[in-house]
Design a protein that fits this description.
The structure holds two protein chains of two kinds. By secondary structure, chain A is an all-alpha fold. Chain A contains 15 helices and no strands. In chain B, the strands form five sheets. In chain B, strands 6-9-10-3-11-12 form a six-stranded mixed beta sheet, sandwiched between helices. Chain B has a six-stranded mixed beta sheet with strand order 18-19-20-15-21-22, sandwiched between helices. In chain B, strand 7 and strand 8 form a beta hairpin. Classes of the chains: A mainly alpha, B alpha/beta.
Chain lengths: 343, 493
C-alpha cells in the first residue's frame, strides 16, 4: 500500500471519524451553552497533562486499560462482558481481605493479593459462562445482572466484617506496609501496576494473534458454528475467555486497592466509571486489539482532563461523558452503515 | 414491442463491474430463462429490474416506454412481480392475508377478509395454484409457500414475474408442479423471467435463454434450437469434460464407515432417525438422497461426531469420537453456516482443524500456516488476491474450493460431503466432482448428500434414500431419477 493510501485509510477509519465527529459535536454543544471552546480545550489538555496532572492521568490509565482487557478478551470470543464493575469490586475486596487478614512476608504480600484479586474477578465472570452456553442466557445480560450483587457484596464486606473499627467510614483499615505496591521512580501516584498491565497487554496481544488459544477464541467469536465444526470446544473457549476477562477486571481492582490510599474505600473502585470508559475505548478500537491501548489513553486523557476543565474553565466535567457517549454512537452508526454497504 | 426491456444496463459495485451493457428483452407470455455462473450478474440484473438497485447507465422499458424504477414499489406499480429465493411471508397469517397484504380489499375502513379469501380463491383457481386461502402459512410445505408468493405477485397484477432460483428449495415432484403452474401463467400472457443455473430446467421450460458471463451477455438462444452443451459453452467459455466413467470394483474391503441401528430423537421426543444402518467402503461413493429434513442433518452430525458420542456409529471399527472426529473430512452444505468464518482470512479458514497438529505447544507457526495455505490455494486453483484477505472477499465457488482444500487434505479415510456444489457455477462444480472422484480413487469412503439427483447419479456407486428418518430404498448409481424421486416421497416401489 502506498503511503498516501495508507494515510487515507487511517484518516477515514472508524476511530478517527468517531473521535473527530464527537469533538465537533461537543464543540457545537459548548457554543450552544455559551462556553468558549478556545478556553475549554486547552483547559482540558492542561488538566490531563500539565501541572503534575500527567502522573494522575497515568495512574488512571492503569485500571482503565485493565478494564479494557476485561471487556476486549471475552469480546474476541463473541461474549460481551458488561459486568466489569462487579468483577472489579470482587477483585478489590479479595485482595484487601487477604492483605488484611493473613500476615505475609514482603513481595508475597503484594503478589498473592493480586493473584487473589484476579481469581475472584475471574470467578465472578465465569459464572456467566455456563449460563450462556447451557441455558442460552446471553453473557451481555448475565454479566450485567451478576455485577450489581457482586458490587453490593463487596460493599457489605467493606462496611462490616472488614470495616475500620471506630471511624464509621465505609472503608477498610490501611493495608500493612508489605502489601503496598511500590511506586515507579519518584512518582507519588504511579505504581509498578503500570509496567505490569503494559506487559500483560503485550502478552494478550501476542496470545490473540500468535497462539492456538487465541486463534480458537477468535474463531469462536467470528462464527461459533464454524469453530465447533472445526473441533474447537467452544463452550470451554467461551468460559475461558469470560474468566480471563474477569481476571483482568479483578486484577485491576486489586491494583487499585494495593495502591494509594492502600485501602478499599467503598465506592472508590466503581465511582470513576473505569468499566464503561473501557467499554467505550474497546468499541472505539473497533476490533483492532493493537489500537486498544491508544484509545484507552485517549479516553483517559478526556476523563481526567475533564476535571481540570471543570476547575479552570467552569465547564462541567460531564461534558467529557457526552464526548464518550457520542463516540460510541458514531462508532455504532459507522458499523451499521458498513454492514449495510457490504450487503 | 417487448413487455419488458433492459437496454445497455451497466451497474458497478466499487471496482466490480456487475453488469456491463446488458440488453435483455422479454416478450409477452414467454418464459425467458436467465442463466450464468455465480457472480455472472444475474441477481444484480433482476434487482435492477425490480427497483432494488438503480443502474449506473442504461434504461428499462415497459411495453416500449422508458420507466424509472426507484424502488420495488415503483416496480410493482409497473406490473413487475418477484419471487425471492428466501420467501418473504408472514408465517402467522393466512394464505389470503399474505397474498393481499399491501393492497387489502377494504370495506368501511376495515379489511374485507371475506372478499380477500374470495379473490385469492379465484386467482388460485384461474392459474391452477392450489392453496387453501384460510390456511396459516407457517404450517405449509415449501412448495405451497412458493405458490403463495406467486399468487401475491399475480394479485398485484404482475405482468412480468421474476423468479430467482425457484427450484432450489423444491423436490423433483414440486418442481414439476411449479413448471405446470408457470406454463399456465405464461399462457395468460404474463411474461416469466426465470433465473437459474440448472440447464435441465432451462431446456424443460424456457422459450428463450439469455446467458450471462462476467457481467456481459454471451449468448441468446431459443431453447428449441439449442442444446445443453451450447449453453455451457456460453456460460463458462469452454465445454465440460465428459463425466468420469464409473468403475466396477469387484473387490471389497471392510467398511471404514459403519452405522448400525442408529435412532435419534429430538428434544420433543420425535424420532428424527429410526434404525438407520449403512456402511461405506474404501473407494466407494455412497449417495444420500431425500427431501430436505428427512434426517440428513442428524445422520451427518452423528457420523462426524458433532452430535457427540452417538452409539452405533463406527469409524474403522471404533466408535465415533465426540466433538469433531478428526478421522472424518467434512464439507458442510452452508458456506456461511459452519464451513467458514467470513471475517477471518483465507489462511485462517484453511487452518481450522489443523491448528493443533501444526503447532508445537502454544504458539501458532504463522509463517508455516501461511505457507501451507498458499500451497493449497495453488494446488486447488483457488483465485484469491492473497491468503491474508478475508474469505468473504472470495467468490462463492472459490470459497467452496477453499473448504474442499481444507477438508480433503486432512489425513482422513472418510469424506462426508453435503451439497458440495450448491450455489457454485458449472466450472467449479466440475472441479468439485473431480476432487471427490479423486478422493474415492485414493481409497476414501465418501458419503455424498445432495438434493440434486443428477449429481448423485454422476458420482455415486450406490444411492440410499432417506424418508422420514429411515433408509427406505437403495439404488445402484445408475437408477433413474424417477425411481429415486418416487422413493424420496415415501412411495413404495
Amino acid at each position: 500500500m502506498t503511503a498516501p493510501a495508507l494515510a487515507r485509510r487511517v484518516v477515514v477509519s472508524a476511530p478517527v471519524v468517531a473521535v473527530a465527529g464527537a469533538l465537533a459535536l461537543t464543540t457545537l454543544v459548548m457554543l450552544v451553552v455559551g462556553v468558549d471552546p478556545t478556553l475549554a480545550y486547552p483547559a482540558l489538555i492542561r488538566g490531563a497533562v500539565a501541572d503534575g496532572n500527567l502522573e494522575y492521568t497515568v495512574a488512571a490509565f492503569v485500571p482503565t486499560l485493565g478494564m479494557a482487557l476485561a471487556f476486549a478478551l471475552p469480546l474476541r470470543a463473541g461474549e460481551f462482558n458488561l459486568g466489569g464493575d462487579g468483577q472489579l469490586a470482587a477483585g478489590g475486596v479479595a485482595a484487601a481481605a487477604l492483605a488484611l487478614l493473613v500476615p505475609l512476608p514482603p513481595v508475597v504480600a503484594v503478589v498473592l493479593p493480586l493473584v487473589a484479586g484476579a481469581l475472584a474477578g475471574g470467578l465472578v465472570a465465569a459464572v456467566a459462562a455456563p449460563l450462556s452456553t447451557r441455558l442460552k442466557i446471553p453473557a451481555i445480560v448475565s454479566t450485567l445482572l451478576i455485577s450489581t450483587p457482586a458490587v453490593a457484596l463487596a460493599s457489605y464486606l467493606v462496611r462490616f466484617p472488614l470495616a475500620e473499627a471506630g471511624t464509621g467510614i465505609a472503608q477498610t483499615p490501611t493495608l500493612p506496609d508489605a502489601a503496598h505496591l511500590p511506586f515507579l521512580g519518584g512518582s507519588g501516584y504511579v505504581t509498578i501496576g503500570l509496567p505490569l498491565i503494559v506487559v500483560l497487554t503485550g502478552l494478550w496481544l501476542y496470545a490473540d494473534g500468535r497462539t492456538v488459544t487465541g486463534y480458537e477464541i477468535r474463531a469462536t467469536g467470528q462464527n461459533r458454528e464454524f469453530a465447533r465444526y472445526g473441533g474447537v470446544r467452544v463452550d470451554r473457549v467461551a468460559a475461558v475467555a469470560l474468566a480471563g476477562g474477569g481476571a483482568f477486571a479483578g486484577l485491576s481492582g486489586a491494583l487499585i486497592v494495593l495502591g494509594p490510599p492502600y485501602r478499599f474505600v467503598d465506592g472508590a473502585l466503581t465511582a470513576p466509571g473505569y468499566t464503561f470508559t473501557a467499554v467505550a475505548a474497546v468499541l472505539l478500537a473497533s476490533a483492532r486489539p493493537v489500537v486498544v491501548p491508544l484509545t484507552v489513553a485517549l479516553l483517559t486523557v478526556l476523563q481526567v482532563g475533564g476535571q481540570g476543565m471543570e476547575r479552570e474553565a467552569g465547564v462541567p466535567s460531564q461534558l467529557t461523558q457526552i464526548v464518550q457517549g457520542l463516540i460510541i454512537v458514531i462508532v455504532a452508526v459507522l458499523a451499521t452503515l458498513q454492514a449495510r454497504r457490504r450487503r | 414491442m417487448y413487455a419488458a426491456e433492459l437496454v445497455e444496463v451497466t451497474k458497478r459495485f466499487g471496482p466490480v463491474l456487475a453488469n456491463d451493457g446488458i440488453d435483455l428483452a422479454v416478450a409477452r407470455g414467454e418464459v425467458h430463462a436467465v442463466v450464468g455462473e455465480n457472480g455472472a450478474g444475474k441477481s444484480t440484473l433482476m434487482s435492477i429490474l425490480y427497483g432494488l438497485h438503480r443502474p449506473d447507465a442504461g434504461e428499462i422499458r415497459r411495453d416500449g416506454r422508458t420507466v424509472a424504477l426507484r424502488s420495488p414499489a415503483d416496480a410493482i406499480r409497473h406490473g413487475l412481480g418477484m419471487v425471492h429465493q428466501r420467501f418473504r411471508l408472514f408465517p402467522g397469517l393466512t394464505v389470503a392475508e399474505n397474498v393481499v397484504i399491501g393492497a387489502e380489499p377494504v370495506r368501511a375502513g376495515r379489511i374485507d377478509r371475506a372478499a380477500a379469501a374470495r379473490k385469492v380463491a379465484a386467482l388460485s383457481e384461474r392459474y391452477g395454484l392450489r392453496a387453501d386461502p384460510s390456511a396459516l402459512v407457517g404450517g405449509l410445505p415449501v412448495g405451497v409457500r412458493q405458490r403463495v408468493e406467486i399468487l401475491r405477485a399475480l394479485y398485484r397484477e404482475a405482468e412480468i414475474l421474476i423468479l430467482d432460483e425457484p427450484t432450489a428449495v423444491l423436490t423433483p415432484g414440486e418442481t414439476d408442479r411449479l413448471f405446470e403452474v408457470l406454463r399456465t401463467v405464461a399462457a395468460t400472457g404474463v411474461s416469466i423471467l426465470l433465473v437459474t443455473h440448472k440447464l435441465s430446467e432451462v431446456m424443460a421450460i424456457g422459450d428463450r435463454v439469455t446467458v450471462l458471463r462476467q457481467g456481459r451477455v454471451t449468448g441468446r438462444f431459443t431453447t428449441a434450437e439449442t442444446n445443453a452443451d451450447e449453453l455451457v459453452n456460453a456460460m463458462i467459455g469452454r465445454s465440460l469434460a465428459p463425466s468420469a466413467p464409473k468403475r466396477a470394483r469387484p473387490v471389497r474391503e471392510d467398511p471404514v464407515l459403519e452405522v448400525r441401528d442408529l435412532t435419534i430423537h429430538d428434544a420433543d421426543g420425535v424420532a428424527r432417525l429410526s434404525e438407520v444402518s449403512l456402511s461405506v467402503h474404501p473407494g466407494e461413493i455412497v449417495g444420500l438422497a431425500g427431501v430436505a429434513g428427512s434426517g440428513q442433518r442428524e445422520l451427518i452430525d452423528s457420523v462426524t461426531g458433532l452430535r457427540g458420542a452417538v452409539p452405533g456409529v463406527f469409524l474403522a471399527g471404533t466408535p465415533v469420537l465426540a466433538g469433531r472426529d478428526p478421522r472424518v473430512a467434512y464439507v458442510p452444505e452452508d458456506r456461511h453456516g459452519r464451513a467458514t468464518a467470513p471475517g477471518m482470512s483465507v489462511a485462517e479458514n484453511i487452518l481450522m482443524g489443523a491448528q493443533r497438529e501444526l503447532s508445537s505447544r502454544w504458539t501458532l507457526p504463522t509463517a508455516a500456516v501461511k505457507r501451507r495455505a498458499r500451497d493449497l490455494v495453488d494446488r486447488f486453483a483457488i483465485s484469491a488476491a492473497s491468503v491474508d484477505v478475508p474469505i468473504s472477499a472470495l467468490s462463492g465457488g472459490n470459497a467452496q474450493k477453499a473448504v474442499l482444500a481444507r477438508e480433503l487434505t486432512r489425513p482422513s479415510r472418510v469424506v462426508v460431503a453435503e451439497e458440495p456444489t450448491q450455489g457454485v457455477d458449472v466450472g467449479v462444480r466440475e472441479r468439485v466432482h473431480a476432487l471427490l472422484l479423486a478422493a474415492r480413487d485414493d481409497g476414501a469412503a465418501v458419503l455424498l448428500q445432495s438434493s440434486e439427483l443428477s449429481e448423485l447419479r454422476d458420482l455415486a456407486d450406490r444411492i440410499l434414500v432417506l424418508y422420514e428418518g429411515r433408509v427406505v430404498a437403495e439404488f445402484p448409481g445408475d437408477a433413474t431419477e424417477t425411481d429415486i424421486g418416487r422413493a424420496m416421497t415415501g412411495a413404495t416401489a
